[in-house]
Amino acid sequence: MEQNFSYYYIFNAVARTGNISHASKELFISQPAISKAIKKLEDNLGTQLFIRNSRGVFLSEDGKILYEHTRHAFQEIEEGESFLKRRNELEIGQIRLGVSTTLCRFILLPYLKSFVKEYPHIKITIHCHPTLDTLVLMEKGQIDVGLIVNTSNTRNLTLHSIGRIKDAFVATEAYLDHLKEREGSDRIDYFQTGNIMLMDKKNMTRQHVDQYLAQQGIIPKQILEVNSMDLLIEFAKIGLGIAGVTKNFVEKELETGKLKEIPVPVPIPSREVCFAYDPRMALSRGTRLFIEYLHRCKFESDPCNNLHE
Description:
The protein is of the alpha/beta class. 49% of the residues lie in helices and 20% in strands. The protein contains 12 helices and 12 strands. The strands form 3 sheets. The protein has a 5-stranded mixed beta sheet with strand order 4-3-5-12-6, with helices on both faces. It has a 5-stranded mixed beta sheet with strand order 9-8-10-7-11, with helices on both faces. Helix 9 links the parallel strand 8 and strand 9 (223-226). The mean pLDDT is 87.
């Protein structure tokens, strides 16, 4: 088949034009060379493909059968070439992103908004999983880029840092006033008297906060677990308790006074947020464009302005 490919190409042109002279002009091949190629193909297949007479060449019965196959085959090739050309012109591609629900909601969306505006034809799929699961999926090659909180498990990855996030305990002023009124004092231990609301234990924010509390010797008396940062923030805003949240995501509420930050002995250590990818994996066109876009963001106006050092 490999040796006959050029013969099939010539055969297809002659069959389509119905004339060796026309095929010669189209293919920029001499007529004797075309006749020789057709004869060679007929010898290889052991059958006559064309009937020749004074008016030109006509497909034999076997020739008609073969032409139906070659016509479809070369049409598929042409469509493939056309698609690739259009793909390159429109910068069509695909990228599979892995991200936690929280980081997706508060950090990824601003990046996607400007990226999609610049590359509207790139297909994007988003897999929402905790950071540790995102790292596993990346290792298996099931996602291309992950938006993660930097951990000790990122040694083999290329990281693109976009800033740091801080954690804090927040509540409404009304809730704190009720605690003080109930205890009969302005000086109270919020972690012993308040309803402490935290993410569930599988969440990295919860693990980070738990580690901090243990280091400070703080043991909350009452804990309410929530599996969504959005809900945790909403619960705090309606005065349900004191929430351990990512401070970056409640900046507006803190500025307007809807929420108040609870003082702690020492600040909770900040954490680095990164886009990560495995350089050992073959990068798709969409992934390469996204990585280039991230590097441009670093030197131009970064679309994500809610991460503070």
